[in-house]
């Protein structure tokens, strides 16, 4: 079978502080996940010797992959949804400073585009070439971000793209997708850290 392996980056300092976007380093717990990842990969990924690891250009995904001894490729298109003027803020700060935007996002999370940033729809468009490239890959582990993974996940699970913002992609979990002719099977491997 052909699998696609997905993971969010380990917990970042911003995750701890409830801030969105940014380019923060991993937290202590996030580094634990990074250190655990090689043994998870060896245990669960058949032919891991031939694995390729894709990350975004942001530090937290590269740090998460830093202990993995495989060829790596960095894609700008795998960077997290750009929150524009809200980058680096908490949801509470956004609700206070941009109440209309906060409400608009709540009403249509798929179409809402951050001021100077992106919507989920925008992310899906920029992921198109990546997804095409993924379909040609034998053995790839993609370490990226929550919103990006929700879009990739919905695509492979055949979920309508408008539902992408609500896919559940927890931290510290390796996700295995097995695309079949009529459905994609999914297995979640939780790292116990
Ligand atoms: O909080 C982590 C994060 O990856 C943010 O950087 C990003 O804006 C957010 O998740 C996306 O999730 P949501 O669309 O639910 O706000």
Q: Quick recap of the structure?
A:
This protein has 193 residues and is α/β, with parallel strands linked by helices. It is 37% helix and 17% strand. The mean pLDDT is 97.
What does this protein look like?
With 193 residues, the chain is an alpha/beta fold. The chain is 37% helix and 17% strand. The protein contains 7 helices and 6 strands. It has helices at 13-17, 28-44, 59-64, 91-97, 99-107, 120-135, 146-156; strands at 3-8, 52-55, 72-74, 139-144, 173-179, 184-190. A 6-stranded mixed sheet has the order 3-2-4-1-5-6. Strand 5 (173-179) and strand 6 form a beta hairpin. Helix 4 (91-97) crosses helix 5 (99-107). It is globular. The model has no long low-confidence stretch (mean pLDDT 97). Residues 15, 20-21, 80-81, 83, 145-147, 165 line the site of 6-O-phosphono-beta-D-fructofuranose (F6P).
Sequence of strands across the biggest β-sheet = 3-2-4-1-5-6
Distance between the termini: 29 Å
Biggest sheet layout: 6 strands, mixed
User: Could you name the ranges where pLDDT drops below 50 across 5 or more consecutive residues?
Assistant: none
What is the helix tally?
7
Hetero compounds: 6-O-phosphono-beta-D-fructofuranose
C-alpha geometry:
globular
The helix-and-strand class reads alpha/beta
Q: Overall pLDDT, averaged?
A: 97
Succession of helices and strands: EHHEHEHHHEHEE
Strand content: 15-25%
Helix content: 25-40%
Number of strands: 6
Radius of gyration: 16 Å
């Amino acid at each position: 079978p052909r699998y696609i392996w997905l993971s969010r980056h380990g917990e970042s300092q911003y995750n701890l502080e409830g801030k969105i976007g940014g380019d923060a380093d991993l937290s202590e717990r996030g580094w634990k996940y990074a250190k655990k990842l090689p043994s998870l990969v060896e245990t669960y990924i058949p032919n891991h010797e031939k694995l390729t690891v894709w990350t975004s250009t942001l530090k937290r995904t590269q740090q998460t992959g830093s202990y993995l001894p495989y060829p790596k490729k960095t894609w700008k298109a795998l960077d997290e949804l750009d929150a524009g003027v809200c980058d680096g803020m908490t949801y509470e700060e956004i609700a206070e400073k941009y109440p209309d935007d906060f409400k608009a996002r709540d009403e249509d999370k798929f179409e809402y585009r951050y001021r100077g940033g992106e919507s989920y729809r925008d992310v899906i468009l920029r992921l198109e070439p990546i997804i095409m490239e993924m379909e040609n890959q034998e053995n790839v582990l993609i370490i990226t971000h929550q919103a990006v993974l929700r879009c990739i996940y919905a695509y492979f699970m055949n979920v309508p793209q408008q539902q992408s913002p609500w896919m559940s992609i927890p931290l510290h979990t390796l996700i295995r997708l097995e695309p079949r002719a009529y459905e994609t099977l999914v297995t979640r491997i939780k790292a116990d850290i």
